[in-house]
Structures are given as C-alpha cells and as structure tokens.
Amino acid sequence: MNGKMHSETGAFSSDGMRAEILNPFVHKLELDNTYDKIKTAIFTVILLPFRVIVICYLIVTAWFLACIGLYGLSEEDLRRQPMTGWRRALKPLICFIGKMSYLAGGMAISVRGRQASRKEAPILVVAPHSSFLDSCIVYATRMSSVIVRKESMDNYVGKLINYTQPVYVWRDDPNSRQNTIKEIIQRATSKEDWPQILIFPEGTCTNRSCLITFKSGGFYPGVPVQPVTIRYPNARDTVTWTWEGPGALKLLWLTLTQVHSSCEIEFLPVYYPSEAERRDPKLYARNVRDVMAKALGIPVLDYTYDDCRLIARAKQLGIPGATSVREVSELRAQLGLERSRIELHLIAQGPMARKRWFSAAELPCRLGLPETPAAQRLADIFVQRSSGLIHFPDYLLCAAFLCLQQEPLTQLLSYAFKLYDTTGTGRVDVNTFEEIATHCLGLCQEDAHNTFGQADLDEKGWITYDEFISFAQKKPFFSFIFTNDLAAQKPKTQ
Predict the structure, then answer these.
(1) Which residues are paired to 401 by β-bridges?
(2) Cα–Cα distance for residue pair 423/439, rounded to 1 Å
(3) Is the pLDDT assigned to residue 404 strictly greater than 70?
(4) For residue 18, is pLDDT > 60?
C-alpha cells in the first residue's frame, strides 16, 4: 500500500483522498442458508463432542506440565529471573501440545518467515488482534512472555499463563501503566535470557479490516522489535470477536463445527528504530503499524481503546446508533457539528420546532449542512430499516451523548426528557418514559415500566424530569447517572 498510512481522522487511500470510513468493532456472522444450518447441526452432533474431548485432554495435559514446571516457584521468583534448566526444557513440549489442541479443533497453524532471537528483537509486536484464538501465537513463538491482567491468573489456565513468565498489569493500581512500562523496559534491556515479550499493541479486538492506534507502551524501551501478523484466510469468519457481534461461545461452537480452519502467522523482518523513534515511542508505534498495515494490505485508522470504551458506554446506555458512535463522532467533526453543537440548540427549541420523522435526504437541511458524502453517510447511519426514515430524536440523542461525554449523565437525561416529550409540557407518560429509559439508561422495557410506576408516587400517569431525579437520588441502582466517569458501570439488574 502506497501513500499516507496514518492520519488524525481515519483511513486514507493511496491518492490521499479519504477512503470509506471503517468500523473495526463490528462483526456480522449468521448461517445464511439451509445447507449451512444443516451442516452445522450435523457436525454439532458427530464432530463437536469428539473435538471438545480431545482439546480438553490436551489442555489438561499442557496445564499439568506447566504445574510441574512451576513447582516450587513463587510469583516473585517468576518476576525476578528467567527460568532455566529442566523447567525451560518443558516449553517445546507444551508448545507442541498447544498446537495439537488447535489442530484437534480443525485449525491448522502455518508459519511464514523466521522468528528472530531475543538478542535480535526482545519484543514481538503482534497484530491485528481479533480473537481469543490469537492465543495460538504463544505456542508459535515458543512461550513468549505475555502482558496480562493479574486478575486473569484466577482462572483455570492461570498456570499456563504463569509459565510464560508474564508481565502483570494490576488494573486497580493507579500507577499500573507506569509500572508496566517500567517492567517492559527492564525485561527488554536485561542481559539475562528472558523470553521475548509478546504484545498486542492495539489493546482490543477488531475485525481485521484495519489496524487501529498502537499503544506505545511496548515501544518505550527503544529496542528493535519484530512485527508479527496474524491472518485467518477462511471462507467463513468464525473467529472474529468484537464489541458488536457474536459472543465467544457462539464463535467457538461455529469454529469447532467447521471441517477445516486455518491461521497464518508471518514473522516480518526486525524493525530497527531510528534515533527519533527511540526518543518518541508514539512515532515508533505509528511507523511499525504502517509497516504491518502494508504487509497485510489493509489501511490504518486512528481508533483507540478509549474509542472502544466510548462505544461500550453507548451500547450500555442504549444510545441510538451506539455501534457507530465513533464514526458519528468523526463525521460530526468533519462537518463542523462538533464545534457548533447545533443539535443541543435544536433540542432546546422544544418539540414543536422539530419534525420527528423524515427521509435521509432531509437530514443535511435540518442541520444546516451542504449535501456532501459525509452528510449523507451520517444520515444513512440513522435510517431505520423498517420505515426507511430517520427518527430525528434518536439522532439528536446520539449527538447529545457525544457533546456531553464529560458531563454527568443527568445532563443527557435532561435533554432526553425534552427530546421525547411530544407535548412540550415537561411531563412524560409511561410509554415516553420507557423510550427514554431504554435509549438513555440502558433499561429493558419491563424495568423501565416498573421504574415509572415507582417514580409516579401519586399515580398521576406522568412524571417530570425533576421528579425522576428526586426518585433516582434515593436509589443506589441509579447512582451511575450522577457521575461523569465514562467507564462507570451501572448494575446489571435492578
């Protein structure tokens, strides 16, 4: 791929013109025809049980060998010095068993290129990260050290993870990022024979349509790195695990009921940083990403893990267009809406000043925009399949969510009451409140209905925004609406 490979706004084509906006966090997978459904059903009965039994046997065997290799070693021992002698000699056997577990599941792992030695490249940079099945890279790289959350050690594969002598991340530690970078630097520059460090610099799973922003933590040591790419060249993509798409169990089931799957791992030439890249880890990360994107033949897109959190928060609250909220944000910035915040002014004008339903072609006019491809794309995101029309309050609520990201949720909620109140009286009935609560509070319709009944103490048949806030302040369940923390989690059930 020639031309500019990274930008502040998104993917670019070789001629410098803006390419089609991608959403790397969505993956659609359905059994489209009767043949696929019948084949999957048959293999679920005759193939899946056999594969599960063999895989479990192999994993337990590898786990048992890891327990032997770790016998007598404390967590502090694992962090202080690399394993040697017979403990290290078990690694090739565990790697072989690990690869066999994938083969037992119908997935053949092929490797191209040569893995550099630790002396040549202390760090392996792996991308794209798209699946929990990417863990095969650990076996393909002879048990390289992974970067892992400490709480992940509590599950049954903790021994296998510990055997790689991982770099631990404590999410509860406010200095976690600095401590992790410090340990990466110590490992990468140590004269001792530590395993190579294996990092997934994207920090989250995508659908492999592009490479998103690389985190710079693995590039702070300023040492040479070896880029490693992962591909899954299968007719049906049953491995991709993103924010919007099938869950892990469904993907595992569909993968294990395929006759054959494949994974291609390619070791690219070692990347030696320039002096400028050693001084600037972000520059180093961007340039390595460009090299990997060129090898994969895909664009780069400056999405970050924070964008993932934004999408997750929008989905959690039920914001209309949640899965495309990052794209909506980018389009609004291109169109100047981010600066004007015109949507908030439209909301403030009240319901009588707004037409609620209209075609996609009308949206640019409603927002005072010229008819451009970006404006049309923004409209297309909010077109409802059932009617072919845009429900304007849904778009305005999504825009308000983006404008008010740093504000407590009460601010968004106050706008939602204005948006969905068709009477202009400030009072909403149970049906309108259900619409607000499902689009702004993440409640299901039944919970929204029950909440309205509890908030309407006088059984008037309507409540105001102030009445709901007064009610919510007394309920621990609704504490999440009074914080401006984007990552704040609301309870799963009321």
Answers:
(1) none
(2) 19
(3) yes
(4) no
User: What single-letter amino acid sits at 136?
Assistant: C
Whole-angstrom distance, CA of residue 477 vs CA of residue 473: 9
Buried b (16+ CB within 10 A) or exposed e, 300-318: bbbbbeebbebbbbbbbbb
**What is the DSSP track for 459-476?**
--S-EEHHHHHHHHTT-G
Question: pLDDT band for position 4 (50/70/90)?
Answer: very low
Looking at residue 156, its pLDDT comes to: 60
Domain boundaries, given as residue ranges, for the chain = 34-303, 307-482
Residue type at position 164: T
Going by DSSP bridges, is the β-strand pair 357-358/167-169 parallel, antiparallel, or unpaired? unpaired
Residue pointed to by tokens 């040591």: 221
Tell me which CATH code domain 307-482 carries: 1.10.238.10
Token reading at 19: 């390419």
Where do we find the tokens 């944000």? 329
Q: What is the pLDDT of residue 159?
A: 83
3-state DSSP assignment of residue 230: strand
Contact 211, 200 (CB under 8 A): no
- Rounded to 5 degrees, φ, ψ at 216 are -90, -5
The pLDDT score that the predictor gives to residue 406 is 84
Distance set, CA 426 to CA 5, 366, 429, 433, 449 (Å): 50, 24, 10, 12, 19
User: Using CA atoms, how far apart are residues 448 and 450, in angstroms rounded to an integer?
Assistant: 5
CB burial string 168-186: b at 16+ within 10 A, e below: bbeeeeeeeeeebbebbbe
Nearest Cα to 479, choosing from 441, 434, 438, 433?
441
- Decide if pLDDT at 333 tops 50: yes
Query: 264: helix, coil or strand?
Result: strand
The residue whose two tokens read 């075609």 is 359
DSSP state at residue 8: S
Residue 322 DSSP symbol: G
pLDDT, tens only, 74-124 = 888 998 999 999 999 999 999 999 999 999 999 999 999 999 999 999 999
DSSP code, position 18: B
Q: Mean pLDDT, to the nearest integer, of 181-199?
A: 95
Instruction: Tell me the CATH class for 34-303.
Output: alpha beta
Q: Is the pLDDT of residue 485 over 60?
A: no
Q: How far is CA 73 from the centre of its chain?
A: 35
